[in-house]
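Mods, move this if it's the wrong board.
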Amino acid sequence: MRQRSGIGDGVLLRNNNARVVAADRVHPNPRSLDGEPWDAGLRSHHAAIAGEWRRFADGGGRLPRMEDLLGEHQGNEGSWRVGLLVQTGRPVAPLADLFPATVSALAAVPGLLSALWSVLEPGVELPPHAGPNAGVLRYHLTVEGDGSAALQVGDVVVPYVAGGSVLFDDTAEHSAWNRGASDRVSILCELLRPVTGRAATLNRVVQRVRALDGRYRGAPARAAEWHRALNPHAPA
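Not the wrong board. Structure tokens:
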């Protein structure tokens, strides 16, 4: 996602990026998820997660656009809709209350900082971009997808197929698209980068400082306001 400067950006973030990369250097990007029990555990809940999503969508549930939730445009062409489930490791109402099985499954993911529904409607293109924060990794669990939508990280293209997952460092250039005829629905998570020692301690501090930025701190209130506006007959 393209983000303007804020609290925790600048020198603090650049120093932290250098520190965590030095402590966690030898990995492909995207990363291998083979043998990661938390990934297998979350994917084992795919049917329940997909069932909750389908009940919401079939019942007329609507989500705001990404730029409305964050209060700034992310550079995407087409409609990218999102729904906030977890922020700073804590469930966020009202959506967390509407997706209890999903939130319960996410609670077992180590280092989970945030999670949101991410819906790329047909025709969406997210042009090549790079995130600013190497202290976190991005994880996507595809809830609905037939492979016609994809993520590209560097030279690696990962199709979005229902039940599949991908973990990557988004400070590398990456892009995404949906060139199919139906929505690509996924859960997009931000995970604390798994480093140890002093690098881990300082990284946690930096991520707490970044969470104070108004873009993120105000997101739960904006999410609740948009939920009420888009779903006036749904439980608040």
